[in-house]
Write a structure and sequence with these properties.
Order of helices and strands: HHHHHHH
Number of strands: 0
Strand content: under 5%
Length: 163
């Protein structure tokens, strides 16, 4: 089914461009928001809280990286034999999605620890990013769901640990 979706989308030029653009912009906004969040806490001289927030992202990222290496799940385009809409230099290590994990932990931390409006915007970016990664054929839906679940739980845990 995913192969059919990707193959149909690959024939629609504007759809391919939109998926690539949304993926790029969403990733960039989330990536920029992480150091911004840490700077906000550091400026307020809340260095311990900034460290906890940083670890709330780093620990699950490193853990999931290890899981991905151990499982080495092929990506959908490898398993089903098609060209993904987003370029991938190497295959494997699909489960769980680190993009979805990182985006959801950062979005959750913003939503719960910093500010609701930015957190909501980042959650919209997280969901858009995840949809793009599915529609482009680089992740299975299960990769994204587990990445989002682990990221969200890690963000909530990080907020509860904050002094």
């Amino acid at each position: 089914m995913q192969k059919r979706i990707v193959e149909r989308l690959s024939q629609i030029g504007w759809a391919c461009a939109l998926i690539r653009w949304v993926n790029l912009i969403s990733t960039a906004l989330i990536l920029i928001s992480f150091p911004a969040m840490l700077i906000i806490f550091a400026v307020k001289r809340l260095f311990v809280q900034a460290l906890i927030l940083a670890l709330s992202c780093a620990v699950p990222f490193l853990t999931v990286t290890g899981v991905r290496i151990l499982l080495d799940r092929p990506r959908p385009f490898e398993a089903e034999g098609y060209t993904p809409l987003l370029k991938r230099e190497k295959g494997g290590r699909s489960f769980p999605s680190r993009h979805a994990l990182s985006a959801s932990v950062i979005s959750t931390l913003w939503l719960c620890a910093v500010g609701t409006p930015v957190g909501i915007i980042l959650w919209v970016c997280t969901l858009a990013l995840s949809v793009c990664r599915y529609l482009s054929g680089v992740h299975y839906l299960s990769d994204l769901i587990v990445g989002i679940a682990v990221g969200t739980l890690s963000g909530i845990l990080g907020v509860f640990i904050l002094p």
